[in-house]
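Morning F.,

Quick status update on the modeling queue. The single chain you submitted on Monday has been processed. Sequence for confirmation:
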Amino acid sequence: MPDVLAIVSKAVFEKEAGGRKPGKVWPIDTYHSQSKGLAPLAAGGRIFMVTVRPPSDTLWLVAVLENPQNTGKGWRSGRNRVAISDITSLVPRLRFANGKGINAAPGTLGMSLQTPRVLDAPSAALLLGQAFCSGVAPAVNVTKHDTIGPLPCLCKLCLPQSAERAETGGMAFVRSSTEALGRVLHYWIPEELQKNANAVGRSVRSALASRLAAR
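Structure tokens below.
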């Protein structure tokens, strides 16, 4: 899946990020653009959002949007969970899918990144590694509170008290979870289906992602 490097202007970042600096998470969920350079994301992928900070050509990674969907006004995903980080030292190592790097004269780094472009796989991996090193906020538990069902509730308040295994109606169940767009859903599956847990997880994740994207 393609991963795209896209710039956030100085004006937009300073207006919307609330003065956040490296180490802080900017919980943005949409990249407001219909640039043709973002079209490859229709097949999935990530937007690595960067901004250039004054007075020199300092480049910050400010957000990573996972599997964004085109809303017609921009590309929306779950809220960013990656902390802002300074990636200036990585600039010489970044390459786009066409094999070209970032070649900008002093003072023109921002201008050289105006068009969103697909990164090559090693560069995307490099930025993803930096993103995880900078810190990732935990996914939000969206499991609804349930006091009626026969199995223990797995909402964010009840989950810490829940066991990994439960029984009801003569059947044994095990706890599982899946994550999409910065949200995590916890659920029970019959113990006898554990061998198919990956397939069940993919199905639940797809349904969760579709529901979140439709919001």
